[in-house]
Amino acid sequence: MRALHIAFVSPFFPLKGGIARFSSNLHEALLERGNKVDAISFKRLYPGILFRGKAVYEPGMSRKPVSDVLPLLDTLSPFSWAAVARLIRRRNPDLILCAYWTGLFAPLYALLRLVSGKRMIVLMHNYTSHERFPGEKILRDLLMMSADGVITLSAHVACQVKKSYPEVPVRSLFHPVYNPDSTVPPKEDACRQLGLEPPGPVLLFFGYVRAYKGLDILIDAMPEVVRRYPATRLLVAGEFYHGEKIIRDRIERLGIGRQVKIYAEFVSNDRMPLFFSASDVVVLPYREASQSGVVQQAYGFGRPVLVSDRGGLPESVLEGRTGAVVSSLDPSALAESICDFLDSREKIPYERMVKQHARKFSWDIFAEKLESFSREVIG
Q1: Which of 29, 102, 331, 355 is 20 to 30 A distant from 365 in Cα terms?
Q2: Which residues pair with 134 in a beta bridge?
Q3: For the chain, which residues make up each domain, given as ranges?
């Protein structure tokens, strides 16, 4: 079968964040399958003020673009949008694949489709932005008028798209598993390097800290967990975009400062194995979610997950085998689920079951399914 030529528009490494990591992995998988991919990235993704002084690039990586990635787009410059649209038209790919996670990028993608004249598939990470803003639905409507197809990473998001835009072809896939990029140390070594005193179970909250991710709920659940399992510790690893002082004050007020260790930093790929290796379970008490790349990171390290029953999160969990779904966001219910997991971890071989499950969600399988849908869209 003839290979595809795809213009893939998205953040890519060395830009940091989950979308850049996802797209960089998918880019590599598509190339390995023999496709031609024009990876078109951003030289400026957001106004600097939104980063609040935080780094824009992946720690340890040069600002120099990764090989084969073209950093041409400036979100604040429509002139760069038009230039990229003309470039796509000249290169004449089979289709455009664009990563979508917020309505702010809808006008850009609509323009690329209009000017280039190429069919466009929207790779939809989120149906709505995590930080809502007025007019987002209007912008999403604009994008869907231009879309020739939509790929989602969960059935939950696919249902949202089908309900609002029944005329647009939709393919529900999955979020592939991230395999470790570097050597994974033994749990004891990881705990020692992170300054954790053994022994005892370790919970991990990983990734950007935003209001919708429910870290406050997990903090409120910890006193009950510690009462029943006094040696339990919680690792919080990620950059704070919401409420660091509030969280620290809450920990102090609840008297669990010795049981909670906070690493308020963006965790680079080379340090990521430390945190996952040190942990026994990854906890995601999200108030809302399309899906989460953190689940797939945990699975890559063989770690089970406890997730809330929000959005597409439950789709990725096999109850009692790769983790558990918490039916309520009440701190007492979360504490009960954590303790139930700690009760079961000696009886259930979670790591083996997680690794077996993870084999079904490779980047190669995802890329193959994306190619199949792309051929349907371009006829």
Answers
A1: 102
A2: none
A3: 5-176+362-378, 187-358
- E strands, the chain, in order: 5-9, 36-44, 69-74, 95-100, 120-124, 149-152, 170-172, 202-206, 233-237, 260-263, 281-284, 305-308, 323-326
- The predicted model scores a pTM of 0.93
Region 357-364: mean pLDDT is 95
- Quick one: which of 324, 269, 317 has its CA closest to 292? 317
Cβ neighbours of residue 33 closer than 8 Å, sequence gap 6 or more: 3, 364, 367, 368, 371
Measured between alpha carbons, how far is 313 from 317 in angstroms, rounded to an integer?
A: 7
Q: How far is the C-alpha of 167 from the C-alpha of 165, rounded, in Å?
A: 5
Crossing angle for the helix pair 293-300 and 18-32, to the nearest 10 degrees = 60
Q: Which string of b and e fits 213-243 if b means at least 16 CB within 10 Å? A: bbbbbbbbbbebbbeebeebbbbbbbbbbee
Task: Count the Cβ atoms, other than its own, within 10 Å of residue 135.
Answer: 8
Three-state DSSP at 34 gives coil
Both tokens of residue 41?
A: 């990235």
Fold exhibited by the domain 5-176+362-378: Rossmann fold (3.40.50)
Task: Identify the pLDDT of residue 49.
Answer: 52
CATH level 3 topology of 187-358: Rossmann fold (3.40.50)
Reduce the DSSP state of residue 244 to 3 states and report it: helix
Distance CA 264, CA 261 (A): 10
